[in-house]
Amino acid sequence: IIIDPVIQVINVLPCHLTYRVGEKGRDSSSVVERIQTDLGVGADSDCVAVDPRFKPHMSIRVPGYDWSSWKMVVNRKLSSMTWLPSRDDEEQLFLTQREDVDHSDDY
Predict the structure, then answer these.
(1) Does the pLDDT of residue 91 top 90, yes or no?
(2) Could you tell me if 15 and 62 are in contact, meaning their C-beta atoms sit under 8 angstroms apart?
(3) Which of 30, 55, 66, 85 is exposed most, by the fewest CB atoms within 10 A?
(4) Apex CA 10: angle with CA 7 and CA 11, to 5°?
(5) CA 23, 32, 34, 47: dihedral to nearest 10 degrees?
(6) Which residue from 106, 101, 8, 105 is spatially nearest to 56, judged by alpha carbons?
(7) Are 31 and 24 a contacting pair, CB within 8 Å?
(8) How far, CA to CA in Å, does 55 sit from each of 19, 29, 49, 75?
(9) Residue 19, Cβ neighbours under 10 Å: how many?
(10) What percent of the chain has pLDDT above 70?
(11) CA distances to 11, 42, 56, 104 from 52, in Å
């Protein structure tokens, strides 16, 4: 029996969302998109097998906004917290860009 790590997305937002899963090769610095799927409100996706050797990443888009940056979704070091965002990434979540007017008006 072979068990692969999987990703399943559940949309708990009050709007539909689109997500994509990509991978980085060992010698690649950019993420290559593997799949892209739309999810309705309250829907859950099919399970997608991922290979931790290829550093799986995920990006999400909701209506009216651009794609989020690629984020790695697999903990590659056992017994560690590498799945958590770095402090810099976490601070970026709360900073808005000038051209992102809609988002800054929401808050």
Answers:
(1) no
(2) yes
(3) 30
(4) 135
(5) 30
(6) 8
(7) yes
(8) 17, 11, 12, 9
(9) 21
(10) 66
(11) 24, 28, 6, 35
pTM over 0.85: no
CB 21 within 8 A of CB 48: yes
Structure tokens at 23: 């991978």
Closest Cα to residue 39, out of 15, 22, 71, 57? 15
| CA diameter of the chain | 51
Q: What is the pLDDT of residue 107?
A: 44
- How many other C-beta atoms can be found within 10 angstroms of the C-beta atom of residue 82? 11
CA–CA distance, 35 with 33 (Å, rounded to integer): 6
* 62, 17 Cβ separation under 8 angstroms: yes
Identity of the residue numbered 79: S
* Lookup result for tokens 């917290």: 81
Residue type, 101: V
